[in-house]
Amino acid sequence: MDIVAMYSIDMAEPTEPPTTGYLLWRVTTRLRAAVDRALGPLGLSHAQYTLLASLYGLSRSGAQPSQRQLADWTGLEPIFVSKLARALEQAGLLERLPDRRDARAVQLRLTTPGAATAERAIAIVAALQEAFFAPIGGPHSTHTRHLAATLKTLLAAEPRSEPMTSPSPAPAPALLTGQDVGQAEGALTALLNRTLAASQTGVTRVEYVTLRLLAGRGPQPQPAAVHALLASQPQLGLDRGQVAELLGRLESRGLLSGSAADGPGPLQLTPAGVALNAQLAEAVVAATRPLYADFDPDDLATAHRVLVELTQRATRLGEEA
Fold it and tell me: Which of 41, 86, 145, 293 is most buried, judged by most C-beta within 10 A?
């Protein structure tokens, strides 16, 4: 290499490495432009999609937010939200209604075409995110989860106008623990118990789980296998004798037949059992729908995988002990 080439500067690259803020701006700008292009056929911009999708998610949980509440939720300026809402109203996608609780406030509500457009837009953006995050393993990869945790930390930090004399450590992201899982299980169990009690059918949680199991699996030609399966579930807390009593009790109520472990089978729900299971399942779905209404589907899928893996690991550790 001659001396001219050694000391020349390639003008295609900056002489200083780009700052993190600059890279973050470039990535968000690129993503926003990609969303604008993808949603162009629906007549939506990235900002309009943000408002419409947020309102859709909140509405699924029964909420009817005001413009101010939606501004706080999305992080957009209230005056900008007002402008976006007026444009979406003119397009027939939402309604701006007086808030009966506050004469100064305006509530937002999706129209039927607005909800349909939101669903289509959410599906389009979900597919776009699959492609956008593919270089780091996709939306569900470890890299993406770490990136999301970092961005949440930055969003939660209070901006400071004055120079920092000494850097403060960033708050550690919350980690999932056994206590978290246990508390969630306890809260969900309590909700299920209240829902079953409100049905006034006399069905207990364990009985409901059994009905759901048989409804999902259909007739079981080997009743003993069902006895063993129910007795192996730690969340039910039943031994073989208690399982036999449970199934016998349900059979005496006319909800199933073939309950004996050593019987010829099959073990299956009766028509009355099928009808009761459908009635209870409908009540449980209605009671639990608000639990998941405003969660990002990607977050729910990640939580599902983590809990499945935790269950498998805990089972293996218990068998090795």
Answer: 145
pLDDT per residue as tens digits for the range 155-196: 776 555 444 343 444 444 556 777 777 888 888 888 888 999
Q: Of the given ranges (15-29, 151-165, 285-299, 302-316), which has the lowest mean pLDDT? A: 151-165
Contact 247, 172 (CB under 8 A): no
Among 1.10.10.10, 2.60.120.1440, 3.90.76.10, 1.10.3720.10, name the CATH number for the domain at 180-320: 1.10.10.10
Q: What is the pLDDT of residue 10?
A: 39
Instruction: Give residue 246's pLDDT.
Output: 93
The DSSP symbol for 11 reads: T
Query: How many angstroms separate the CA atoms of 67 and 85, rounded?
Result: 8
Task: Tell me the three state secondary structure of residue 97.
Answer: strand
- Burial of 138 per CB tally in 10 Å (0-12, 13-18, 19+): middle
Query: Which among 134, 114, 155 is positioned nearest to 24, based on CA atoms?
Result: 155
User: Residue 269 — φ and ψ, nearest 5°?
Assistant: -75, 145
Q: Is 66 helix (H, G, I), strand (E, B) or coil?
A: strand
Fold: same for 20-137 and 180-320 = yes
**Model confidence, pTM:** 0.47
Q: Which fold has domain 20-137?
A: Arc Repressor Mutant, subunit A (1.10.10)
How far is the C-alpha of 153 from the C-alpha of 155, rounded, in Å?
A: 5
Measure the CA–CA gap between 208 and 13, rounded to whole angstroms.
65
